[in-house]
From TrEMBL:
The chain crosses the membrane at residues 33-53, 65-82, 103-127. It comes from Micromonospora nigra. It is a multi-pass membrane protein. Its main location: membrane. Residues 24-91 form the DUF202 domain. This is Putative membrane protein. Keywords: Cell membrane, Membrane, Transmembrane, Transmembrane helix. It is found in: Cell membrane. One of its GO terms (cellular component) is plasma membrane.
């Protein structure tokens, strides 16, 4: 694990693996990394916004649970982004198949499930005030 994390911070380590690829592939990998990083930042911003601006919800501490879930998910996405970037860059340099991941599917399901829970909370609040 520590060796993996070390490779994230050591460009010379990455350059010592395999052959220098066509720069377009490395740049595409970097763009994908940046897209995942933007997603992580958006989730963190959503978590902070939920903590600061959501009104109290009908379920006790639901607002805080939403905020914490978004913050943790945003941090997870950011860490996953750098790990996937490094593994993909290594595979490109070695001429291997690109790494596959279930993370996009898991993230999609988590966001979808979270959205459904929020819809339920909003409807409960709307019908509870009548």
């Amino acid at each position: 694990m520590w060796q993996t994390i070390r490779t994230w911070f050591d460009p010379q380590e990455m350059r010592s693996v395999g052959r220098t690829p066509d720069y377009r592939f490395s740049l595409a990998n970097e763009r994908t990394f940046l897209a995942w990083l933007r997603t992580g930042l958006a989730l963190v911003a959503g978590g902070l916004a939920a903590a600061q601006f959501l009104p109290p919800l009908p379920v006790a501490h639901l607002r805080e649970a939403i905020a914490v879930a978004l913050l943790v998910l945003g941090g997870t996405v950011a860490v996953r982004a750098v790990d996937h970037w490094a593994r993909t860059e290594r595979a490109i340099r070695l001429g291997e198949e690109l790494p596959v991941s279930r993370f996009p599917a898991v993230l999609s399901l988590a966001v979808g499930l979270g959205s459904l829970l929020l819809v339920a909370a909003v409807l409960a609040q709307a019908f509870g005030h009548r």
